[in-house]
Amino acid sequence: MMAQILFAGDVMGSAGRRALRLALARLRQEGPLDAVVVNGENAAGGVGITATIVREFRGWGVDVITAGNHVWDQREALTFIREEPRLLRPCNAPPGTPGAGWVVVEAQGGWRLGVLNLMGRLFMHPVYDCPFRTADAVLAEKATDCDVVLVDMHAEATSEKTAMGWYLAGRVAGVMGSHTHVPTADERVLPGGTAYQSDAGMCGCYDSVIGVDRDAAIRRFITALPGHGEAVDGVATFCGLLMTVDTGTGRCSAVRRVRYDFPQEMS
Q1: Per the residue annotation, which of 70, 154, 179, 181 is the catalytic one?
Q2: Are 141 and 119 in contact (CB under 8 A)?
Q3: Lesser CB count within 10 Å: N end or C end of the chain?
Q4: How are beta strands 35-39 and 112-119 bridged, if at all?
Q5: pTM of the entire structure?
Q6: pLDDT-derived band of residue 199, with 50, 70 and 90 as boundaries?
Q7: Any catalytic annotation for residue 70?
């Protein structure tokens, strides 16, 4: 079976949630989406994610929600993530961290999708265990339980994400970068049938500095004072990667970078 799998970049605030909802509806008018994976760690006003938003995403047909360094920005996540197996945190987090970084779900058509959430170590805080060794361990112990494996590599450095893509080439169906909120133009299928993109981009308002108020971000750079700008609403842009994957072989044959802009007045 040839499946259409969508990975949506970091959802940022209300504009990002609106972009995701409208983009899913538009893509489903073009054809079926057999599985949807979304990075949702900034969905709650740009700071973390809530149980309400997780339920909202699931109602829109999102199969798995990945995260990264902002997963704990909403304190409630420390508790509800234990009851939300489809909400992941980085798998290379220290032992004893709440939640899980790997999940297998049954997708439309009966095939099984495994999703692995990793976080890079270059320029990231906190510093987690080695994501490369974590990927090896998960694939060796758990990947036999599924037909297709996708990896969200949440990292700052393009070099680290690219290295992970090549490291897992031919072993997984896709390695998608997240975290930097800027879509890259390097989407391709690596040897062995592995989709790759250094960063899927952000679902949110791009009239901003990676989703937050421009003035607040500029002021922080000039003054070097701490602070966190508000997530910006406005034109909602969806960015993601659409992959064509053979569920029999677990290999990707084609990728398409997706971007849609939705004016603020759209419901």
Answers
A1: 70
A2: no
A3: C
A4: unpaired
A5: 0.96
A6: very high
A7: yes
